């Protein structure tokens, strides 16, 4: 039986028609029910709400595969999954185009004050002196050069931007490689984060790194909210030296009611949707379902 505890696009469900499937997109919210259904699960498909921890894995003795409808692994006990030799299917690259378009599109819209101008015209104003700045010829710093970081860098380069990339573990073109995070921050008009959350990357954007950004710089985060020390960011924005921030992810999701960043005008906040397009969700669901099918078919008695 395949257990799916969060929302999955019908395109992926269709590929699993040959199996017994228990699909409950709200199952993650009921821990007792989740553990009950896990007892007979040969495969588990989750997003980012289901905690695949020791308790869940202990309740699922038949588990042969875990599919993750996204690229973050924060909610998976990877050490235990490796110990039990349970493969984890992660659809790397499936939502990279969606995130890259979000980053580039929002960067351009922010620099040209698009939403501010739309509101002005809607309110009867016709102010043509707020044209903003172009992104061409400016430097985009990309932190992390996985599938998404690469897609962002390629699109920025096509726009005529200078690209600087920091990722010591990736094969970055020599012309783009930054020797250090500090060097990247100090020369970038815009910085976009695309690195996983680890003990080393938590709060990698803090008071010290923010101080290294040029005046008027823009910070974009579509990776993980915990990469940024939000208190330090709020202070940097309040000082007026930082040009702005575009945050699709937050340290706490949803943020608390007293979230100070909501009150700062040059901050754009979206609810963790950079990678959520119809196209990307189809690609993710199909990629995960196809690999789950492949693993189960290679086993015995799993239909």
Walkthrough of the structure:
The chain is an alpha/beta fold. It folds into two domains: 2-92 and 279-297, Rossmann fold (3-Layer(aba) Sandwich); 96-269, Rossmann fold (3-Layer(aba) Sandwich), CATH 3.40.50. 34% of the residues lie in helices and 14% in strands. It is built from eleven helices and eleven strands. The protein has a six-stranded parallel sheet, sandwiched between helices. The longest helix is centred in the C-terminal third of the chain and has 20 residues, at 278-297. The N and C termini lie close together (7 Å). The model has no long low-confidence stretch (mean pLDDT 95).
Give helix and strand order, one letter per element, not per position.
EHEHEHEHEHHEHEHEHEHEEH
Structural class: alpha/beta
Say which CATH homologous superfamily of the largest domain is assigned. Answer: NAD(P)-binding Rossmann-like Domain
CATH architecture assignment of the largest domain: 3-Layer(aba) Sandwich
CATH top level label of the largest domain = Alpha Beta
Q: State the CATH topology of the largest domain.
A: Rossmann fold
Number of helical segments with 4 or more residues: 11
Shape annotation: elongated
The mean pLDDT is 95
Stretches where pLDDT falls below 50 for ≥5 residues? none
What is the share of helical residues? 25-40%
Whole-number radius of gyration? Answer: 21 Å
Sheet with the most strands, sense and barrel status: 6 strands, parallel
The domain tally reads: 2
- Share of β-strand residues: 5-15%
Tell me the strand order in the biggest sheet: 7-6-8-9-10-11
User: How many strands?
Assistant: 11
Distance between the termini: 7 Å
